[in-house]
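Researcher: Next sequence.
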Amino acid sequence: MVPRSIYFGFLLFWFAAPQSSNGPGSLPTYEAGKQPACDQARRGSMILSLGAAGHSDNMEVCLRDGAGRFTWVPASYENRNSFAKARKIAGCPIFPDNNVWSSTVDKLPVSGESAAVISTYAASRVGVNPEYSLNLADSKTPSFTVRFGASESDFGKYPITGNMLMEGPTRQSLVSKGPYKSSDAHLMVLQTDQCKLYEIYSLETNAPPYSGGSGAIYDLMANDMRPDGWTSADAAGLPIWPGVLTYAEIYGGDEIRHMVRFSVNNTRNSYVWPARHYASRKGEATLPPMGARWRLKASVDENTCHESDNNGKTYPAEMKRLIRALKHYGMILADNGLAIRISSDTDSRWGDPNNTSSPEYVFNGWTHCLSGRDFEMVDSGALMVGGNSAEAVQY
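Model: Next structure:
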């Protein structure tokens, strides 16, 4: 799909004559910061925004973006991104259509390092671990400056309330009941009216003033990446939530349309795009770098299990859906943890993991049909448009 572009540069000549707020044919003029509301009624309207001392005047147009938000943008603005296919949560896309999280890997070549790396995890069974929650907020949600231990953090204000869910001993672990030293204590918040994702690693306090290990803020309307070498709330310097597999995706009727996040227990002291950071002192070529993209082999049977307790049984629809996603989109290595463990959400419908009839227990029985030997590591370099952008070639 060719991205729709909006370009108003030609209007610069049309309105080149001096303007006043009262003259015939003039643009409505406002001081910067005092523009009228940009909404459906003003969509496409143009104004002149007067710059403060030392700043230029700007012609601005009222436009609607891919998330349905209205805002004044410079008249020469060109939107190269589209959001027609992007996953959306509360009206916000999970990055543009051309973002690496939506890129496919089934046509990429196998990495020359694949055999050595996969041999390390050949016998490891695939599992799913429901541990991440996404909290929704808006501009009215209280926001606080968070003191972070890692200098590679975004030090803006983070929306936090005591009743938000975070990673902890249980799936209903509340900020107000923390801190939770027994977990990574991740807190993830989507601010819906700005379409920004806030992620904190190791939230250390349960009330203001808040402190944590590290924090990252992502504009979900852009393909921005963290500075090279920076961590995030994740060891690989990546956002976490875009790779989390949700209960609704697994058991829904639609296909899973993004790469998924996973961990192994040992990684290399290096990283590959789109990762920005590593968390290891080991340099063995038999270990995968952060950001490694794994793909389920095309030869893997999509209908029948050939390992574990379900050997010989026909896969249910939810497992077939996961297999297709792992072949088409693959998964990305983002953290040190259990091997090979796919990240998923804390939807209450997963049930008690110790109950043999719960969806989590049953589904993990099916994922154990897959092991490391069923995967191959691909060379994802062909997807990269620019080393400092998460934009990816879409096949």
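Model: The chain has five helices and 18 strands. Confidence is low (pLDDT under 50) at residues 1-24.
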